[in-house]
Design brief:
275 residues, mainly alpha, globular
Amino acid sequence: MNPIIPLFKRELLEFKKHAFSIILFWILTPIIIHTLLAIPLSRLITMDIRYLNWSAAGVWITASGMTAFLQSATRMRKIQFESRQIDALLKSPISNLDLIIINISRGIMYGIGQLLVAIVITSTLNHEYQSLGNMLIIIFQMFTLILHFSVLGTLIGMLVSNHISFVNISFILFLGVTMGFGNFIPLKYYPNSYLSVINTIPTTTAFENVRSVILYGPFNWAGFFLTLIGTILISIITGYKLTGAWRMCQTSHSASSYSIMRAINAACCWGRAYG
């Protein structure tokens, strides 16, 4: 049997065990973002279209992207920096690549769940519903973003051992996604020097695509496929890099105590992955 299957079943069992709190989180997150951010900004920002309909994409991106990131990052940190987790995994037939795949899949699963709930909530609050065709396009585009954040979470969760540093990085990422890519403040309000930088980032096109589809505007298919292909390539490269780094770090772990491994773990991973 493929070792990924029991790992995935374990994730489903964990979800079932904490289903109430997870679903409550999925419900409250878009409501809070909509109420405390989108509604106040709707009274300050003037647009030719209804602001709350336009900013719904920002709610979806922020809620689902950060959910995917945090779920994959926190699980990877638990695997990487808890001795009981490492000891158990070293004795199992599960490969490092299997663990990375299931960790990324975990982020995707939770991110998609958050996305679907956020879409239902914002559509209900705004009294604005998308056609089936539009929703399929939005979900396809959002999948590339959720995959991107899940891979990023796996990377950060593996390399950042210090809890305070992890919290700081997560907070900066949250602020950047929320306020830095036009998700709640139109890009026309940003300086040209800043726009020249973020316009080179593939995810900027993906964000714009989601907002455009919501308003029944044109969809940049070239941007969609570039984002998808770029994200997949980065996922594969990152997966192999992390697999090699983790295998070497685990070899060091098996030859020394975990307390020593924990102290040198970050440096080991950075050096092996990028040296």
